[in-house]
Structures
1.
Amino acid sequence: MNMPITQGIHHIGLTVSRLEESAAFFVALLGWKEVRRNEGYPAIYVSDGYVMVTLWASKEPPPNPFDKNKNVGLHHLAFQVGSAADLNGVYAKLVASGVPIEFAPELLGKGPAKHMMCYEPSGIRVELIWPGL
């Protein structure tokens, strides 16, 4: 039997059109920490203590917004939360902050897992999921 050569995710690199606002989404709204900045690129590195996300500033605005049904590329990012209460709490925080919400917390399939979908400031779809365990 072949064993995977990889050992999980080290980091995810995302090109964003609104660098500061995208970083604030992770830090101010999701409670992540800013790890460091690279002013030369520019980039901001953020982490929840489990995974790091590198946010790279795009050099030009995207010609068209990403369409999850037509474009090849990132469909969405999914981050796990610790409880149904955490999911509901972050949903309320995102709504109060004006974050675009695709759908509010709902059962995933027949449950007990629940999830929601929103958009960070550069338009990347972000799923927050409680696995129901």
2.
Amino acid sequence: MKKKEVPQDKSNLESANFRELCYAVDENGEYTTENSSGWEPKTVALKNAIEEINERIAEAKNRVIAGETSPIEYYMELHKMDVGILASYVGFWHWKVKRHFKPSVFKKLSRKTLNKYAEAFDISVDKLKSMSLEK
């Protein structure tokens, strides 16, 4: 695309005063870079992804409050992680992280294990544990 054709549509980047660096062809036919404030298809896709993440966070929180899952799942969703990423941060197998989602198992976790999760989420162990008490 030519330098003057780089999209400058409104996007989520614009509200944060960011610009995306794009490659374009200048007047001499040479590749150069140009800042873009965004373009509509990307903005729509990003907005949809953010809405889906927010829905998963809300669903996880509701499951914690209902006693169906542990706060680990909520904080995992809140920090935009999946089981694989979380497992790599805490040094456990995937199946073990999933097992820690069970409220009955979560209640029995050692302080050392809880501390690993708290560090991964950058919160205190007390905050991790108190999430299960929210109603």
3.
Amino acid sequence: MPDPRLMISVSGIRGRVGFGFNPTVVASYAAAFGAWARAAGGARSVVLGRDSRVTGPLFHSVACAALQSVGVDVIDLGLTTTPTLQMAVEHHSAGGGLCITASHNPVEWNALKFIGPDGLFLDAAAGTAMRSLIDGGIPYATWDKLGVVTQDAGAIARHLDAVLALPYVNADAIRARKFSVAYDACRGAGGAIIPELLERLGCAVHAINTETDGRFPRPPEPVPENLGDLERLVLESGADVGFATDPDVDRLAIVANGGNAIGEDYTLAFACRVVLRHRKGHVVANLSTSQVVDDAVRAAGQKLIHAPVGEVNVAQRMRAEGAVVGGEGNGGVILPELHLGRDAPLAVALTLQLLVDDPRPVSTLVADSPRYVIIKDKLPRTDGPLDGAYAALQAAFPDASAGTDDGLRLTWSDRWIHLRPSGTEAIIRVIAEAPTRDGAAELIARGREAVAGVS
């Protein structure tokens, strides 16, 4: 049985270092993944990389040895971003990819993200098959069949080249605008890629926390309450826009020219506005995404399809629907023409392209859009199932349309509430949106009552 202190989900396996997550766990899971990748896809190689976390080099060494121990040839990216690694899996036609990152979790956490040969995170079935090897016996290689290690120092450059070559990104037009951009990397892996992208796009860059040492100066999740330093930097530098990324650089948050963080949902809404100008088709977003994305898609005359929370769920639905763009309301943008994964460098380029296409300031773009207030709350995880909480919440709002694809989502014409257990933290997420803060807060309060009634 896995250690109950570990979080196991479609996002991989994560935990607090020294409290469930340790070198033994990393060695077992990395070896199991390597054996699964060889058996499932037939390719002998696996791409390996890590974000900037303090514990990253330690677990990187452990994972590298574990992969070799099952006969896997390791293509080592070293310090990198999750989307860069996903693209490298496809570039090398590898059997899979292993990224050592706990994404937005605090500094004491680390994690393994497992990527299949198609560049997508493992789905539930593949993850179950991979983990079964831990209990059933990992097929270690003999001395003469151990894997070898090669370095790939060009992955980030290839990633940036691919973003700048997209048909939706007019790099020359962006350079001509000479944007002033503020950026906060939070000492994550973004320091190794975002400033270079901005410079290649002709921007004047005002950056903080670009050291890639993983010593986060603030909580690393790029939500508005954590972006005070970036807001001040935007004001002091007179920047046209501010960007913040999470430690593994698959999420992008935006600060408007007035120095106000506008919320991560606008990242996807802005990307949809750019892409849908050029290509018509469905858009896929997760169930916790703001209505600002609905509005952007509707304004283009297209259809928005909801998928359960989790990048792999969105990516698979995008592939099934032939969606032209999609993502999650946490600042994650997915463009199939680049790869089927959330990608902050992509989101940076598309946001700057929007400011070329529509020269109004970011603050005006937001002010001229329909207004909603979204509140994202967290509650401690209860021991038992949440069925009772779902039933209580649904009974409290019999007039709402109920969806049960991922927890419980109640929807009205102008508001919604989503209650679900997190796959990345030991919490219950309660997210609500309404035209006013009071309306959203009332929904959150009712969600809290429903959970309290069964805890």
